[in-house]
Amino acid sequence: MILEFLSGWVLQIVIFIILAMVVDLILPSSKIKQYAKLVIGLLLILIILQPILSIFKVDVEQLISPVFQTSTNSNLEAEIENQTNQKKNEIESINRAYVLQEMVVQMKNLVEEELNQDYQSAIDHLEVEWKEEETAETTEDITAIYVQLKPFQEGNLETVEKVEINIGESEKELDNESFDNQEIIDFLAEQWQVEADIIHARWKEE
């Protein structure tokens, strides 16, 4: 009787160790794997202590139930909070990008009419760089503006081909000395309330 119990007990330990190794290989490295290792470790300890627990007639299920319930609830709450924060950050990032893009569109609309009439020019491409997307609110947060202009003719429908928003440093190198109309740069700087030296302009190549 005792021999059968011991052989069954050893067999349970061996099977459980093999199962633990398989689970460890299958699960990817994540919080779930860490939690699985914790659970497997606790169960292995209980299996090893099974003879002692049987002598004292300890209810194993009653013993481990509060532990697993607390651990499960804690991990579940942490996972839900983590996912909620991720979704919140994603939504805030999308909203901020939309706000900045609208600001760029408004900058273009602000100068469009006068640029067409007084300088016979139109914005073909407009790109704006900001210090930090999370805190950018006004044109004071702009670090660089890249404007590509083209001649404007009355009656033609002019559109901006592309509006871009960049954060931080840029690899662009546009030399304003090659742009032959400093008056336009000064006009744009005045309307956008920025320093003229952060505006980099060029004519569209035909």
TL;DR of this structure?
This protein is an alpha/beta fold and 206 residues long. The protein contains five helices and four strands.
Report what the structure shows:
With 206 residues, this protein is an alpha/beta fold. The chain has two domains: 2-88; 102-203, no CATH class. It is 58% helix and 15% strand. The chain is built from five helices and four strands. It has helices spanning 2-26, 31-48, 50-55, 60-119, 182-192, and strands at residues 121-130, 142-151, 162-167, 199-203. It has a four-stranded mixed β-sheet with strand order 3-1-2-4, with helices on one face. The radius of gyration is 33 Å and the shape is rod-shaped. This is Stage III sporulation protein AF. InterPro entries: Spore_III_AF. The chain crosses the membrane at residues 6-26, 38-56. Keywords: Membrane, Transmembrane, Transmembrane helix.
Widest β-sheet, arrangement of strands = 3-1-2-4
- Given the C-alpha coordinates, what overall shape results? rod-shaped
The total domain count is 2
Average pLDDT, rounded to a whole number, is 75
The major beta sheet can be summarized as: 4 strands, mixed
Q: What is the N-to-C succession of helices and strands?
A: HHHHEEEHE
Low-confidence stretches: 167-177
Number-wise, the strands total 4
Continuous helix count: 5
Helix content: 55-70%
% residues in beta strands: 15-25%
Structural class: alpha/beta
| Cα gyration radius (Å) | 33 Å
Terminal Cα span? 96 Å
Transmembrane segments: 6-26, 38-56
Pfam families: Spore_III_AF (PF09581)
InterPro entries: Spore_III_AF
Protein name: Stage III sporulation protein AF
